[in-house]
Amino acid sequence: MTAKAAPTTTHTTVVRAEGVHKSYGPVEVLKGIDLEVAPGEVMCLVGPSGSGKSTFLRCINHLETVDAGRLYVRDELVGYEERGGRLHVLRDTDIARQRRGVGMVFQRFNLFPHMTALENITEAPVQVKKEPKAEARRHAEELLERVGLADKAHHYPSQLSGGQQQRVAIARALAMRPELMLFDEPTSALDPELVGEVLDVMRGLARDGMTMIVVTHEMGFAREVGDTLVFMDGGVVVESGTPADVLGAPRHERTRAFLSKVL
Ligand code: ADP
Ligand code: MG
User: Fold this and answer.
1) Measuring from atom 22 of ligand 1, which residue has the nearest CA?
2) pLDDT value at residue 108
3) Model's pTM, two decimal places?
4) Which of 20, 22, 23, 24 to mutate to test the pocket of ligand 1 (most atoms within 8 A of CB)?
């Protein structure tokens, strides 16, 4: 496998994790994660605080390196290439290219405060992808429309509510035309009355066929939109299945204990 060859085959998985381990110093945070995400799948990742959910998302985006195991996005190893049976760290340009294919939305919106909504969205396509400004702008307007903020293009983040800022953050991630979107508790920092508008945008994305991994405590969303529900605890996948199965008939005591607290 070569790192740069764009995969041309039809993929059966967008994400494949095989025995992914990650430690911070002596603390092992991921203890062998195995999972697969199919094209168009919405996987909801739930579990107690500290179970390794954010760390796992960060590994997918190569914001963290994996210590052992294999992590593939679109059949490409994340951050490494395999030559002669050995793993070699990819060059920065290749890592950047891999990262561009994965959009990430965090709990905090992280918009550039000195840029308008539109400028926030066009920044990376123009600066990183070298898209022509006019095209980036046209795409940004389309994305603002999609997240219901066509009339806020020229507003600064401070002039927008938390829910509106988070919707701009989603549009900004989509501007890079990712094939996978990662959401890390995207509604946890929002006032309750603003949660729905962000979940609505995510629901629309799912309907349009976007592949998504969503770390969330919104079990209603998981039940309604998720294809798969994965319950993590202590750095392992305790169980996974359809949301109806996992929520309706959890097989493990740890899952039951967690669900009894959040449902
Ligand atoms: P979750 O998102 O499920 O709450 P995290 O992936 O954020 O869990 O964290 C899992 C564990 O890893 C926690 O115990 C946390 O303190 C630890 N951890 C996360 N990031 C770091 C880091 N950069 N350095 C050291 N420990 C970390
Ligand atoms: Mg987290």
Assistant:
1) 24
2) 87
3) 0.94
4) 24
Rounded Cα gap, residues 172 and 121, in angstroms: 4
Quote the CA–CA distance of 4 and 245 in Å, as a whole number.
Answer: 40
Q: What's the pLDDT at 85?
A: 85
Residues 6+ apart with CB under 8 A from 229: 43, 44, 46, 222, 240, 241, 242, 243, 245, 246, 247
Q: What share of the chain is helix, strand, coil (3-state, %, to 5)?
A: 40, 25, 35
* pLDDT tens by residue, 46-56: 999 999 999 99
Residue 115 gets the label, from left (phi > 0), alpha (psi -120 to 50) or beta, of beta
Residue carrying the six token digits 């949660």: 195
* Ligand 1 mutation target, pool 49, 53, 55, most atoms within 8 A of CB: 55
